[in-house]
Structures are given as structure tokens and as C-alpha cells.
Protein: Cytochrome c biogenesis protein CcsA
Organism: Pelotalea chapellei
Amino acid sequence: MKSLLLIFTALSFFGAFNRGVLAVGTAVGVVYLGLRGWSMGRLPLIGPHDTVAFFAVSLGVMGLAISLSPSLRRAGWFNAGAGIMAGLFGGLALIFPARDMPMPAILDTLWFELHVVLAFFAYALFGIGALVSGGWLATRDRSLMDIQFKAALAGWSFFSASMISGGIWGYYAWGTYWLWTPKELWTSILWLFYALLLHLRLKGAKWEVASAWSAIFGFAVTLFTYLGVSLLMKSSHSF
């Protein structure tokens, strides 16, 4: 079954040159996640292999969705960027061993699954928004900043819902909505960062350069919140 993830990774890289190939690769990634979840009787959301694979496929899905915008339908650079990003994280997921374990009791709740799925949708949108911002810095096409704003707003909305569902899961798991762990602190930093980014965009065209660079930096903060904290710091959210 892991060969499907390898196919997804390869097609994502080849999809950098063709949107149709990227779409096929993303479909293969969705099938991989579905089959893996079906075989285990749960969503594949535990451990670095599953979460990185889910993130990679989410990048493909969000990239394809945003590529339907009129300004991006003929933008080869965007398709290339989305495909390479999805392929890189698909390749990273292959490095980690898959954990075929039942869902631990503390995680066996809809609130946990909703919390994680929404978070990865947000992460993917933040990544695609950073890509669009890079395109704007290169082309100065004003329509791209509108797309970046919509991607950031949708991502921030998903992330807000993820934090709410995570709080409810925390209450059922530990009897409190909030634990002062590094992951939760960085989650709050990321949420506030994108809230400020959205307000910055509303200040007008003279702030577009700052907004674009902030979106790129924001994806770096996103990756540290997801991977850096999980791998480097002890937390209830660590791998």
C-alpha cells in the first residue's frame, strides 16, 4: 500500500509540469489515505508518517482548488510550486515508518480527528498562500494578493475551528480546555500571526509588500509549529 504514496510523490513532482498529472497524483494520495484508514479502522492521523502524508495530500488538494482561480489557470509557476511542495512532503512521509496501531483511548473521539484534519487544511492553505505571495513579489499581479488574502482567511478560519475542537478534545482527555504545552503556545502564536496578517492586508495597497513577505514567513512559522515543536519539544502533541 505504501507504493501508492510513492506514486503520489512521483506524480506530484511530474505534476509541476501538468495540472492533470498533479490531479491524478493527488487522487492517488487520497486513495492511499482512504485505504490506510479503512485497513486500520480509523483516520490515518497518528505519527509522523500519517500526518506528513496527510499534509502532503492536503497541499495537493488545496493547490488544485486554488489553481481554478482565473488568474492562476495559466500560471505554470503556481502549478509547479504546488506540485513540488506536495511532492517534497510526500517524500518526507516515506522516510518515516507507518504505525499500524489502534487508536489510543485518549484520541478515540471525533473531536481529535476534527481537530487534526482542520489543522492540516489550514497548514496547506497557509503554504499555498505563501506560494501565491512569492508569485506576487515576482509579477506584481494585483489579483494574486486577493487570492493570497482569501487563502489566508480560509486557512485562519479552519485553524480557528481546529483550536475550538482541540479545546473540546482536551477537556474530554485531560479535564481542561488548555494545557500550557509548547505546542499550544506555538499554536496561539500562529493563530495571532495570521490574524495580524489579515488585518495588515486590509490596510491597503501600500502594505502589500509587507503582507506578501509576512505570508511567506508565516508558512515558516507554520512548519515550526507543526514539525519543529513536535520533533524538538516534549508535549502532549509530540510524535
Summary: The chain has a mean pLDDT of 92.
